[in-house]
Design a protein that fits this description.
The structure holds 2 protein chains of 2 kinds. Helices cover 40% and strands 27% of the residues of chain A. By secondary structure, chain A is an alpha+beta fold. In chain B, 50% of the residues are buried. Classes of the chains: A alpha+beta, B alpha/beta.
């Protein structure tokens, strides 16, 4: 086995995986570290703005941030109460190039 | 000119207190007047590692709150007469530390000491923030393991944004050094532990030293003697060399079972 082990019988070293995982993670964390801090404030402002027109509770708003490749998307879900005019649910989605 | 050096890591258990004790004892052995301060309020341990736990009367918090004079709280080391320990409180919590109080004590210590070593608590809360806030230099203690490296990266971010030097502006930023501890050359050679080069490439700060995993570290803590002052061991030698570099000596880096990091990686400036 060892004759060919050098080329065929070798799993990737776990230390290489450790390094690669860290490089990918830290590239993300360094770039988006401080900018993710605004999400709670954004959520609060959005709820306040909506409250001026309709009655919603604070936990009826869901905010999710995702990034795939070089596109980051911000998804905001607001559940409006049923007795309000129009929709039972408003779904607003914005995608921005990140 | 006195220097305030924070020993920090983010992650717990990587060797901050062991390193603080070894570094301060090493600097004192080199003839510098040195004090080491425990910032881990409520979980005091530096006193045990330094072997002065039964001599604590007043502490850092007593001094900050004006209940004791600084020289009443400083404990002189029995082995080196230019080494002092400022223990912290075991009963109070981190809110007892105030920024003004810390600044006042550090300014007073700057008058008397060449080196002021701040042993940071784990985490990124008040104690850790204040331990680094007034630092001139930082020793980032890291194990060759993913969670430790990630946390060190986070600490480097804080060192370059949430400290007095960072807030003052562009020039004279905190000088950060990497101290890689619990390194096992054999496992690294086998590819089951990241190499020194790997960690340097990720964190991109100058390397102060590599401390091999060694049973001598536990034996030293058992008896309350800094690793450098206890038996002769590879860890002790590695700490001595790291201290010499911290003190400005240009010593070549020799790491068993490892390629010596090239000039490029030693000079690598942090870019991100």
């Amino acid at each position: 086995m060892n004759l060919f082990g050098f080329t065929f019988n070798r799993k990737p070293k776990s230390s290489t995986q450790a390094k690669e995982r860290l490089q990918i993670l830290l590239a993300h964390e360094r770039g988006s570290g401080p900018s993710a801090d605004f999400l709670p404030m954004l959520q609060r402002d959005i709820v306040e703005a909506i409250k001026r027109y309709v009655q919603v509770s604070d936990d009826a708003v869901g905010i999710r941030m995702d990034s795939i490749g070089d596109v980051s998307s911000l998804e905001i879900n607001i559940e409006l109460p049923v007795d309000q005019k129009d929709a039972a649910k408003a779904n607003k989605k914005t995608a921005a190039k990140g | 000119m006195s220097k305030v050096i924070v020993v920090t890591s983010g992650k717990g258990g990587v060797g901050k207190t062991t390193s603080s004790a070894a570094i301060s004892a090493g600097l004192a052995s080199r003839g510098h007047r040195t004090v080491v301060i425990d910032f881990d309020v409520g979980l005091r341990n530096l006193d045990m590692i330094m072997g002065c736990e039964r001599r604590v009367v007043f502490d850092f918090i007593n001094v900050i709150q004006g209940d004791a004079k600084l020289n009443q709280a400083l404990i002189r080391d029995r082995r080196l007469d230019n080494l002092y320990v400022l223990p912290t409180s075991q009963t109070r919590d981190k809110d007892a530390l105030t920024q003004e109080g810390v600044e006042k004590v550090l300014n007073e210590l700057r008058e008397e000491f060449d080196y002021i070593i701040c042993d940071s608590p784990a985490g990124i809360e008040r104690g850790a923030q204040l331990a680094m806030y007034y630092a001139d230099e930082a020793v980032v203690v890291t194990n060759p393991e993913v969670s430790s490296v990630r946390d060190s990266d986070r600490m480097l971010g804080l060192l370059s944004s949430k400290t007095a030097r960072a807030e003052r502006g562009e020039e004279d930023q905190i000088k950060s050094h990497l101290l890689l501890t619990r390194f096992d050359p054999r496992r690294s050679g086998d590819g089951e532990m990241m190499s020194v080069e790997d960690v340097l490439e990720i964190l991109a700060i100058p390397l102060l030293g590599v401390i091999p995993e060694s049973p001598a570290v536990l034996r030293a803590s058992n008896v309350g003697v800094p690793v450098i002052l206890n038996e002769k061991s590879r860890a002790a030698t590695a700490y001595e060399e790291a201290v010499a570099r911290l003190d400005g000596e240009d010593l070549p880096m020799k790491i068993e079972g490892e390629k010596v990091p090239g000039l490029m990686s030693r000079l690598f400036g942090r870019s991100a």
